Each structure stands twice: as structure tokens, then as C-alpha cells.
Amino acid sequence: MRKIAFAAIVITLLFLGVLFTQSSSKKTEIIEATPKIAKKISVQQRIIIDEENPPALKQYEAEKGKTALDLLQRTVSVTMKGSGINAFVTSIDTREASEENKEYWAFYVNGSLANVGAGSYQLKEGDRIEWNIEKY
């Protein structure tokens, strides 16, 4: 009789272990299937077309992980050569950088000339992005 009771307890414990394992994996699947909510960040941007009358910085909300190029394209009309990390901005709001005049659109982050392209630079909270025509 003791052997039967012992066997019943072992079988019950094994059954509960299997049930618990299946229940845990289902919870994990549900958690992994939950979409991640994009975090918003606050950045500023200005585009200087006329250096005599530069506009004020404008405040924008952007998703974390977006690039300076994403912000520019979302806020104004942009023409460029290439795309993504290889994008080279050639005009902003119809103001074209003239190759004849050796001009280009310079991209600044927090007051310093960026050392990467706008398609590579991921925005960070509080960034100040500025675009300005310069000569080479």
C-alpha cells in the first residue's frame, strides 16, 4: 500500500511540474509578444537659409532611435543624393546648395559640426540640430 501511495505522490508531483513549466513558458510568450512602446525625446532644430535673419530653434518631439535626417525629412522638404547613412542633403525647402558656388548644407549638433552624416546620427534628448549653407 505504501508503494502505491508513494508512486501516486511521485506521479502527481511530475504532473504538477509539467503543468508549471507549460504555464511559465506561456507567460514568457505573452510578455515577448507585447509590442515595445517607442520612447519620445525632445529635440530642437533650425534651418538657417538667411544668415542675416536666422530663425529661432523650434522644439520637436521625436522617437528615440530616429536620426537627424529623419527629423529633417519629417519637418521640411528635402532633396538629397543617396539615402540612409549615405544621404547627402542637396536642398532644403527649395534652397539648393550650389556646386558652382562651392556650397553645401552643413549639419551641426549642439553647436559643433557633426562628424557623421545626418542619416547616421541618432537623436538624443535635448539635442540642438542646425542646418546651414557653407562653402568648401
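The record above closes out task 2.4. Task 2.5 opens with a second protein, given below.
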Amino acid sequence: MRVLGIDFGEARMGLAISDPTGFLASGIGTVRVTGFKSAIDEAVKAALEHKAELIVVGLPVNMDGSQGERAERCRDFAKEVEASSGIRTEMYDERRTTILAAGFMNETGTFGKKRKDAIDTLSAQIILQSYLDRNRK
């Protein structure tokens, strides 16, 4: 089963897709969007294009486990994507994914515009791979 991973943002949105076995996540790019509706449209388009059977959206949880306005916005996004696509969505705790992605970027010497363009994709890939790993065990 192919799973689409999304690092939701209303300006940029990172996307990743699993292989058909649901074992390995690969980044498929960062999409520039112009707000909530645009992000929904792009997510649905990517899910259909890649024949996803499940969509996993990163849930921004604070380090103390609390959830704020941003988490609620991500939940609303996931509900709208599910309603528009007909594809089930799940939320996945994305704590520390941006930090991990930044660490990878530092290790590979990726800075400047390249970094900005790649960090959302890598975050989506980390979210999705973490989800796949957790559900495989």
C-alpha cells in the first residue's frame, strides 16, 4: 500500500511517498502553496497522482506534549484532504522532525536556498518513515 506523507504548511508543503510495500519513504518534493485551500488541492492532487491509499499528516506537538493552534490547523487540513480525496488520513506526531532534517542538512553541507527548498521534503520523509517504522513493529 502506498502512503503519502505530508509536512503541512500554508506557504510550503513537503511531500513524501512510500514504496508499494510500505517499507521505505522517499521525498517527492516541496510544493509552494498560497494558503489553506491551495494546500488541500495540492495534497489531493499528489495523493491521486501517486495512487496513495493512506495519507499521513504531521501533527506539531509541543515538546511537553501539549498541542496548540497549529496542531488544530493541521487536523482541519487532514479532515479536508480526506473529505476531498476520499482517502483515509492519519495524524503523526512530528516532534523533532524539523530538527532532525536540519541536522541532516548540516551534515551534508546543504545551506541557503537549497536548504530551504529541501527541508520540508526531508521533514515529510522523516514523518512518513517514522510512521511506517512504528506500524511495521
